[in-house]
Specification:
Elements (H helix, E strand, L loop, with lengths): L7 H12 L3 H11 L2 H18 L4 H8 L3 H13 L3 H14 L2
């Protein structure tokens, strides 16, 4: 993470997320700490990453998600040049995605 924004409270925040034991605890924590819009935005970015990873085109993603090309481009840039956070998560949840 960029050292300019890193601080002890970000570490505490990450530790809080890592302490969650199941989906119900995640629901409760994120409902308290985020707005519904923030949760949906994060979930939508992950959905875009999944679709890009599946080889979908921008047009197909727009048709499925109704997001802007700017949002798709931002996620795609992270997939291509980012810190591999999306790639790590996608590799770990791929069986779950295939069963949806």
């Amino acid at each position: 993470m960029n050292d300019k924004i890193r601080d002890p409270y970000i570490d505490i925040f990450y530790d809080a997320i890592l302490s969650l034991k199941d989906r119900k605890e995640c629901d409760n924590f994120f409902e308290d700490i985020c707005t519904i819009s923030e949760i949906k935005s994060m979930a939508q970015r992950l959905q875009i990453a999944v679709l890009l990873n599946e080889g979908k085109t921008y047009t197909e993603i727009i048709d499925e998600t109704k997001v802007s090309t700017a949002t798709i481009s931002r996620v795609n840039k992270c997939l291509e040049y980012g810190a591999d956070g999306y790639k790590t998560v996608l590799s770990r949840i791929s069986p779950e995605i295939e069963n949806k």
